[in-house]
Specification:
It is a single chain. The protein is α/β, with parallel strands linked by helices. It has one domain: Rossmann fold, CATH 3.40.50.2020. Helix content is 30%, strand content 29%. The chain is built from six helices and nine strands; from the N terminus they run H-E-E-H-H-E-H-E-E-E-H-E-E-E-H. Strands 5-4-3-6-7-8 form a six-stranded mixed beta sheet, sandwiched between helices. Helix 3 packs across helix 4. The protein is globular. The relative contact order is 0.20.
């Protein structure tokens, strides 16, 4: 784990830590939301975060870095730049993630998967399935912020710059819904 205070300071300084009643892409509700694009709009923050993330994987001989759209595109590019390898991204398809734009992986190619915020692992799992379908070799998964408190597990090594546990609620059990607080749907992923 890197210096978590520095990571949270970057999220706070950029205005990325939001409090309210949020509808997450998983369908769950939360009182805290990390709006990663408030961080990703600042190249100097992206450079710091991705340099730290790439340091976790500098000795594992990565050949390509893959991220899911949208935030993962920026992170994959910057981590790949630090590791001096290529970067591609996976976009939503009718049945999970797909490669478009001529992107492809070779059988056995050594892959690092990266993403921004880990909540339920949905986006990362979709990328894992896509990479496995191409029979590439996943060396690890790098995340800027794990908000699951290490509860989300993968069959590959996971490294996060920072970790916190944020309570999420199913809509029928959400205390903010019970109080009648307005629900905010941030982000851009369809639910």
């Amino acid at each position: 784990m890197s210096n978590q205070k520095e990571i949270f300071d970057i999220f706070e300084k950029s205005g990325a830590l939001l409090k309210g009643h949020f509808l997450l892409s998983s369908g769950l509700h939360s009182g805290l939301y990390f709006e990663k694009f408030q961080v990703l709009q600042y190249p100097e923050y992206v450079e710091i975060l991705c340099r730290k993330l790439s340091d976790f994987f500098k000795d594992v001989k990565v050949e390509v870095v893959v991220g899911p759209t949208t935030g993962g595109v920026i992170i994959a590019y910057e981590v790949a730049k630090n590791l001096k390898v290529r970067s591609i991204f996976a976009e939503p398809g009718d049945q999970g993630r797909i490669f478009k734009r001529g992107f492809n992986l070779g059988k056995g190619e050594k892959v690092l998967i990266v993403d921004d915020i880990l909540t339920t692992g949905g986006s990362v799992n979709e990328v894992v399935q896509l990479v496995e379908k191409h029979e590439a070799n996943i060396l690890g998964i790098g995340i800027l912020l794990d908000r699951s408190g290490s509860k989300v597990k993968f069959n590959y090594p996971l490294k996060a710059l920072a970790e916190t546990e944020v309570t999420n609620y199913r809509p029928e059990e959400c205390p903010m819904c019970i109080k009648g607080e307005p629900l905010i749907k941030p982000g851009s992923r369809k639910i």
